[in-house]
Amino acid sequence: MFKKVLSLGVFLISSPLFANELTSFDAIVAALSSGKQVSAVLHAKQCKVTDPNEIKFLPSSGFVRIDSALFTEDKLGFDVTKYARAIPTIAPNGLMQRASFILEKNGQLNGVIASFDAVTNVKPANRKDVTVDCKLGDSVHFYLN
Predict the structure, then answer these.
(1) Residue 70 C-beta-side C-alpha neighbours within 13 Å
(2) N or C: which terminus of the chain has fewer CB atoms within 10 Å of its end residue's CB?
(3) Among 88-92, 116-120, 129-133, whose mean pLDDT is lowest?
(4) Distance CA 91, CA 88 (A)
């Protein structure tokens, strides 16, 4: 019974978000330029991810709100910062991940994810940048909130 109620609650909470999908570059830019709140869901397992690090911890999926963006007629850029976690061998104070993404008019999304110590803001010597390449409508979806 609990599982049915829980799944119904998740469905009711998430349904409005997924009902307002922005399926094209032009629709995303139009929404952002009119001041509307836009979010993105990235399915990293469906993207091409290049992670040269020994310890990998890119999530399988992620949800972000786009708080600020820069765009031209054929490119949209936005940044995301999140707290990852404390890893004693890499960043005992905790690790911040900063991602910069560029969505092109053809639907290609490219991103670079860098990691920094959460307290000192210094990039750990043993952490290299991770690159992510995704496709709009396939591995990345944008929604009007």
Answers:
(1) 5
(2) N
(3) 88-92
(4) 6
